[in-house]
């Protein structure tokens, strides 16, 4: 009997704290906390074998969510610096995804509540480990998108990060790629992202963008500019003819984006311009 085995064993002895099970040669303890249904009339029990807190072989009637022969989505329960992340595999002990299977930068490691598509690995000394699926494995569970997906909003889970971009599997099962130019910040491995489809490839994979649509971006930029004006008492020494470098330094916007934001504020009569300055409110003497 070895850690990781799923095996049927006979009940050999009943105790106050559980049962001893046997394969005819060895015995293993099934503790009461690991029993999922009454065993009074049972002669055999199907169990999963693992090490207990004292590294002794033990049995549980709980079935792991993933096995060495299969993959599944698992919840991240904790993140340990310089070590890796632990995932819930449905047992009383969590499995470790070691740091060598995670992104180089710890800021991109999964956090509690994220999900990873993993398989189980049992080390030679019986410890529970998990490994995220490779690209080949992920391709087996994806499906092809058609042109109707273009410009649609999608949500998905990050399953791979690279220097140039991020790979996602969407709720529809599409394999998606996010180029570094199509995001404001790099999403974590295992995190959930929301974006829109900006390209559908011939092979059925898609490219998505996490950047807001132009109209949404304009609204966000307009509120940023307006908030800046309010912080200065309702006036700023910037207008639509200001220097692009000055605009970039203060607002982090291109001149085109800045002008769109000002135009939106002007049309809604929230600002007006005068002699190189922009002011909140309506210009004095203006007519409805």
Description of the molecule:
Pfam families: CvfB_1st, CvfB_2nd, S1_2, WHD_CvfB. This protein is α+β, with helices and mostly antiparallel strands and 288 residues long. The protein has 4 domains: 6-60, Nucleic acid-binding proteins (OB fold (Dihydrolipoamide Acetyltransferase, E2P), Beta Barrel), CATH 2.40.50.140; 71-133, OB fold (Dihydrolipoamide Acetyltransferase, E2P) (Beta Barrel), CATH 2.40.50; 143-209, OB fold (Dihydrolipoamide Acetyltransferase, E2P) (Beta Barrel), CATH 2.40.50.140; 214-280, Winged helix-like DNA-binding domain superfamily/Winged helix DNA-binding domain (Arc Repressor Mutant, subunit A, Orthogonal Bundle). It has helices spanning 135-140, 214-231, 244-251, 255-267; strands at 6-15, 18-22, 27-31, 44-51, 57-60, 71-80, 84-88, 95-98, 115-122, 128-132, 153-161, 165-170, 175-179, 192-200, 206-209, 235-236, 271-274, 277-280. The strands form 4 sheets. The chain has a 5-stranded mixed β-barrel with strand order 1-2-3-5-4. Strand 14 (192-200) and strand 15 form a beta hairpin. 26% of the residues are buried. The model has no long low-confidence stretch (mean pLDDT 89).
